[in-house]
Amino acid sequence: MRNGLPRTGPGTVGRARRADDVLEMQRAARKGGTAPLLHWLATRTGAVVLLVTSSGMALSPPRVRLGDAERDLVVRGAREVSVRGLGSVAIDQGGLTCVVLPVDGRPGALQAPLLAAVRPGPTPPDLPQLLADASAALSLCWQLERVRRQQHRLRIADARTRQAVLQLLMNGQVSAARQVAGALRPVLPEVVRVYVVQGPAAARATVADALAAAAEDTWAMPCPVYAGHTLLLAPAGTDVRPDSATAQGCWTGVSDAVPLHDTATGYAQAIHALATARHSNERYASFTDQPDLALTIGPAAAAWAKAFLAPLRAHRAKRPQDPDGTELLATATSWLNSSSRATAHLKIHRNTLTARLTLIQTLLGLDLNRLPDQAALALALSTAAAGLPTRTRETEEPVPHLDELLALPGVLAWAQPQFHHLWNPDVPPRIAQTLTTWLHLDARIAPTATALSMSPSAVRKRLPRAEALLQRPLLQPSRAVYDQWLAQRALDLAEGP
Fold first, then answer.
1. Where is coiled-coil annotated (predicted)?
2. Angle in degrees, CA 387, 391, 397, rounded to 5
3. C-alpha to C-alpha distance for 333 and 325, rounded to whole angstroms
4. How far apart are CA 168 and CA 163, in angstroms?
5. Is 189 inside a domain boundary?
6. What is the DSSP string of 8-19?
7. N or C: which end of the chain has fewer CB within 10 A?
């Protein structure tokens, strides 16, 4: 002791410096894992520090690119440690120093990376000790990151499997969907409600977890069409909704109860409800559909739809890779509901989608660039999905034209409520006028603006107002747009020429 103070020799200073280094390593590891810790080591030692495999391949590319001589030293050191089972190796050659040691401290450990440091000059006295101290923290970080990567891959595999099940269901292939789903849990219910949750990823996950916990045997999966949506298939006997605290930042739309083979209809209903939820303070809406047009028309609609879709159903693929009638029907349904995003839903290239749509147009004699033909095809598909019985003696009566169906008395009663909210005295007449003109002009903004002598931006402002009043998703491909056109056509026919 001198003047009451302890002596501080070189050994004491060295131990204190080492303790400080270990604390800094732990802080760097907690901050972000392997990458910050390697960066701290490189700054502290003046070396290029990286993780490598037993063959010397870099697992964590360094911030400073290695030259050929440095790379050769790292490869040589990694092979020495791996082949000879050494605890560490230091190589001085050509004015360079390279130190390599196993991250977990066990020579020859399988799958464990190696820690390598290479720098100019002879080996500094403290470099091997620094790397040895860092190896423990690096081992923990590497194992944790490895587990996280494996969990991420498992989540991706699970999500893709569930998306495959959903795709089969959307195409009506229930048996195949059940076979694929057999490896997962829970069992697919016979009758489902489809939930669509929109919002930030973390918030969607919270809402999906809450809904799945409240409704047993619920299937949750990413939406194959919209990246910001999560889908849930819940048993029809459950009717749950997220509470206001859970639903923060998200909107939820839910379908009516539909048979499992009619999941595509449930999805369309949930998307419809989601549009309503966006304008609701509760951020939640269930599908409150007007009476279905196909059910309103009855057997005559079934006879018309059967004749309308007959060319598609009769189509046979000429080559194994070509689509048959079933695939064309699924393509038409997907495209009508999601437009170009059908490529994501059907897992096909956009050129394949274009070719299929061209074939559908040719077989049915339609122009799918026009809203009337889109609406006719949508009505035929929804009528076929409804499974309505046809007339018992349909061969004795000619198949009606679509306009003849829309002119039936019951259809007018169906059509008028489709515009009811726009006819409210509190709503400016220009909103209904803009929507009607837009429907007459194939739902195109520019021709609508020209016809009304207004700017396209003004049309774009009025249409969302109509969408909010009708609580229907008019600005994206959906059944609501086609129903709105059919309702407008029925009103036009009732007014006469």
1. none
2. 135
3. 12
4. 9
5. yes
6. --HHHHHHHHHH
7. C
Q: Give the pLDDT band of residue 394 (cuts 50, 70, 90).
A: very low
Q: Which two tokens stand for residue 108?
A: 């020859």
Burial class of residue 455, CB neighbours in 10 A (0-12, 13-18, 19+): exposed
Task: Please give the pLDDT value at position 406.
Answer: 94
Contact 379, 486 (CB under 8 A): yes
* Residue ranges in 183-324 assigned as alpha helix (H): 201-214, 263-277, 293-297, 299-314
41, amino acid identity: L
Domain C-terminal end among 286, 317, 349: 286
Which range has highest mean pLDDT (24-33, 137-146, 457-466)? 457-466
Does an H or E element contain 146, and which? helix 127-170
What is the per-residue pLDDT across 286-319, written as a single tens digit (0 to 9) for each?
A: 876 556 788 888 888 989 999 999 999 999 988 8
Does one domain contain both 186 and 203?
A: yes
pLDDT > 90 in the chain, percent: 32
Q: What are the CA-CA distances from residue 41 to residues 101, 201, 396 (Å)?
A: 14, 35, 88
> What DSSP string runs through 295-330?
HHHTHHHHHHHHHHHHHHHH---SSTTS--HHHHHH
Per-residue pLDDT tens digits for 121-139: 887 888 888 898 888 888 8
CA 136-151-231 angle, 5° bins? 155
Domain presence at residue 382: yes
The reply to whether 320 and 193 lie within a common domain is no
pLDDT digits (tens, 9 = 90+) for 361-386: 999 999 999 999 999 999 999 888 77
Residue that terminates a domain, selected from 376, 399, 422: 399
d(CA 439, CA 43): 66
pLDDT by residue (tens digit) across 437-479? 999 999 999 999 999 999 999 999 999 999 888 877 788 777 8
Residue 384: its H or E element: helix 371-386
Q: Which residues contact 332 (CB under 8 A, 6 or more apart)?
A: 312, 357, 360, 377, 381
What value does the mean pLDDT take over residues 78-92? 89
| pLDDT score at 221 | 85
Closest of 88, 78, 145 to residue 113, by C-alpha: 78
C-alpha span between 166 and 177 (Å, rounded): 7
Q: What is the CATH number of the domain that holds 482?
A: 1.10.10.2840
What is the count of structural domains for the chain? Answer: 4
332 assigned to some structural domain: yes
Residue 438 shares a structural domain with residue 386? no
Residue 440 CB: number of other CB atoms within 10 A?
A: 17
